[in-house]
Amino acid sequence: MPNGDLENRGSMKNRGPPQNPNGYHSTYYVESSETYWTSWLVPMIVVANIAVFIVVMYINNCPSNSTTTEYYGPCVAKFLGRFSFEPTKENPLLGPSSSTLLKLGALEWDKIVHQHQGWRLLTCMWLHAGVIHLLANMLSLVFIGIRLEQQFGFIRVGVIYFVSGLGGSILSSLFIQSSNNISVGASGALFGLLGAMLSELLTNWTIYSNKAAALLTLVVVIVINLALGILPHVDNFAHIGGFLTGFFLGFVLLVRPQFGWVERQHLPSGARGKSKYKVYQYVLWVVSVVLLIVGFTVGLVMLFKGESGNKHCSWCHYLSCVPTSKWKCGE
Questions:
Q1: Over the stretch 89-140, which tens digit does the pLDDT of each residue have?
Q2: How far apart are CA 224 and CA 79, in angstroms?
Q3: What is the model's pLDDT at position 18?
Q4: Any catalytic annotation for residue 239?
Q5: CA 62 to chain centre
Q6: Tens digit of each residue's pLDDT (9 = 90 or more) over 135-179
Q7: Which of 51, 104, 199, 326 has the smallest C-beta neighbourhood within 10 Å, fewest atoms?
Q8: Would you say 199 and 245 are in contact if contact means Cβ atoms under 8 Å apart?
Q9: Residue in 187, 199, 288, 320 annotated catalytic
Q10: What class of enzyme is it (predicted)?
């Protein structure tokens, strides 16, 4: 966004989507009692996000805002009437204005802390900065989420998605506290699903074939997506917060019994079967639960006390934007 946008409406920190990690889940051994779920939650989330975006564009009503058109130029796709997009100088992603997003629930530190609008930590994940932002996030959700929901069910995947979105919002609020910045998008939740895929692979390591290739592929995808977050106007703190939340939730919710345990009923009488989980799975479960409780407690206390994460970590701002000769992170 140009400087005029920052001064008048605030810049939008877009939560860019993670890329499809090519479905590494096909590499594990399927036991006879494996249950596959019908995916309905992820498609419903996609439909809900599209519906919310349509409502946002209806409320935005670009043609009625003479101030915007005078300052930035004509609305884009004016044939859409009140659904037309803001001028590209205002919003290059083909979407509403920052002021509309802020009014409808975008993440903004001052309103959360000083105006007690904590609900923005959840509503921001249903808003998108534009058509490009929406399509990128929803395509990523379809590629990542449907496969996970088919294997683990809507309850576990739903918990990971929404709790990861909350975790991303909390970390974003702790580090992005300028009154000129708002944050919207579902990619904190999407990165949570990506983190859960990684921890699921690690905690269920013994039931996978081609595990090294699967791990390498997934790690490369994660590194590339997080690296893209250092570009300006991308809220990488939401990505990191969502990823860490999903990573630890994966150890808690996506653990599988070790190979052969579900077939124990076919063993001869008196034969000693395997335990359901390995020791390291129990250890990872306990450690992850503790870290999640501590992380959310500390994060929420710091947030509502008005603490800034940058005061406790002077270099952390580089995780979201690295200045170069081409751009400045304060713009």
A1: 888 889 999 999 999 999 998 899 889 899 999 999 999 999 999 999 999 9
A2: 38
A3: 64
A4: yes
A5: 28
A6: 999 999 999 999 999 999 999 999 999 999 999 999 999 988 765
A7: 326
A8: no
A9: 187
A10: hydrolase
* Residue 118, both tokens: 């904590």
d(CA 121, CA 167): 9
* Cα–Cα dist 317/103, whole Å: 26
> 50 is written with which tokens?
């599209």
- Establish whether 172 is a catalytic residue: no
Q: Which residues contact 42 (CB under 8 A, 6 or more apart)?
A: 141, 142, 145, 146, 149, 157
- SS3 per residue for the chain: CCHHHHHHCCEEEECCCCCCCCCHHHHECCCCCCCCCCCCHHHHHHHHHHHHHHHHHHHHCHHHCHHHHHHHCCCECHHHHHHCECCCCCCCCCCCCHHHHHHHCCECHHHHHCCCCCCHHHHHHHCCCCHHHHHHHHHHHHHHHHHHHHHHCHHHHHHHHHHHHHHHHHHHHHHCCCCCEEEECCHHHHHHHHHHHHHHHHHCHHHECCHHHHHHHHHHHHHHHHHHCCCCCECHHHHHHHHHHHHHHHHHHCCCCCCCHHHHHHCCCCCCCCCCCCHHHHHHHHHHHHHHHHHHHHHHHHHHCCCCHHHHCCCHHHHCCCCCCCCCCCC
Q: Which of 128, 133, 233, 239 is catalytic?
A: 239
CA–CA distance, 14 with 98 (Å, rounded to integer): 11
Interior/surface letters 35-70, b for 16+ CB within 10 angstroms, e for the rest: eebebebbeebbeebeebbeebbeebbbbebeebbe
Inter-residue contact 105 to 127 (CB < 8 Å): yes
Other CB atoms within a 10 A radius of the CB of residue 7 amount to 10
The residues that bridge with 181 in the sheet, in sequence order, are: 11
The Cα angle at residue 51 between residues 46 and 57, in degrees rounded to 5: 130
